[in-house]
Amino acid sequence: MTRLLGRFLAAAFVVLAFALPAAAQTKPDPQNTLYLDTPYGRVVIALRPDLAPQHVERLKLLTREGYYNNVPFHRVIDGFMAQTGDGQYGNGTGGSKYPNLPAEFSNVPFKRGVVGMARASSPNSANSQFFIMFDETPSLNGQYTVVGQVVSGMEFVDKIKKGSGSSGSVSNPDKIVKMQVAADAK
Questions:
Q1: How high is the pLDDT of residue 186?
Q2: What's residue 146's pLDDT?
Q3: Which residue in 81, 76, 84, 85 sits closest to 133, CA to CA?
Q4: Tell me, what's the pLDDT at 3?
Q5: What gap in Å lies between CA 126 and CA 144, rounded to an integer?
Q6: Cα 34 to chain center, whole Å?
Q7: Within 13 Å of residue 49, how many CA atoms lie on the same side as its CB?
Q8: What whole-number distance in Å separates Cα of residue 165 and Cα of residue 147?
Q9: What are the phi and psi torsion angles at 13 (to 5°)?
Q10: Residue 75 confidence class, pLDDT cut points 50, 70, 90
Q11: At 11, is the pLDDT very low, low, confident or very high (cuts 50, 70, 90)?
């Protein structure tokens, strides 16, 4: 019995020794995490600089400048996505003072909670606007840049006021209360 217990404890130690480094790797990186505060609660987004380094840097730059604070979710289509990030006009026609970004497409599928960059018809026209997926939409795969994933607070995204018609245009839209890079959060 004692020998069996000793083997069990030795095996458990080996399992823990290998499990700890893996757990440490999943620790959120505050430099690549956004806190998006909605009227309903906080949405936490893990950014993916490994997939889209230029787009992630743009989001962090604009966030640190306060660009997204009080910006409306101007286009929200139930079962599809919630779009925001037009700090210029608030209606989806504007962008930041910075130039558009070249596409950084990946093989990551557009599923619930994925955050992608909005763009015009040109693949190289993303600037400041982004969207959060309500559901899987394979037609976007490889056509838009994936910048992150909601890791908590998706229930608050679900509460954002939905738009009407096929455009999803929202009258009296909900707004981002505040957006911060987690490393800078107070």
A1: 82
A2: 98
A3: 81
A4: 52
A5: 9
A6: 8
A7: 12
A8: 27
A9: -65, -45
A10: very high
A11: very low
pTM for this predicted structure:
0.86
**95 CB-near residues (< 8 Å, 6+ apart):** 86, 88, 127, 128, 129
What's the confidence (pLDDT) of residue 183? Answer: 98
What are the tokens at 129? Answer: 């606007």
How many C-beta neighbours within 10 Å does residue 57 have?
13
Number of helices and strands (H, E) in the chain? 3, 8
Q: How many residues in the chain?
A: 186
Are the C-beta atoms of 101 and 110 separated by less than 8 Å?
A: no
For the segment 5-18, the average pLDDT, to the nearest whole number, is 43
Please check the confidence at residue 103 and state whether its pLDDT lies above 90. Answer: yes
The answer for residues whose C-beta is within 8 angstroms of residue 75's C-beta and 6 or more apart is: 82, 83, 92, 131, 163, 167, 168, 169, 170
* Contact in structure between 144 and 116 (CB atoms under 8 Å): yes
Give the neighbor-by-neighbor strand order of the sheet with 75-77.
Answer: 75-77, 81-84, 130-133, 114-117, 146-152, 42-47, 33-37, 178-181
Beta strand 33-37 with 178-181 is antiparallel
Residue environment code for 17-48, b if the CB has 16+ CB neighbours within 10 A, otherwise e: eeeeeeeeeeeeeeebbbbbbbeeeebbbbbb
DSSP state of 107: S
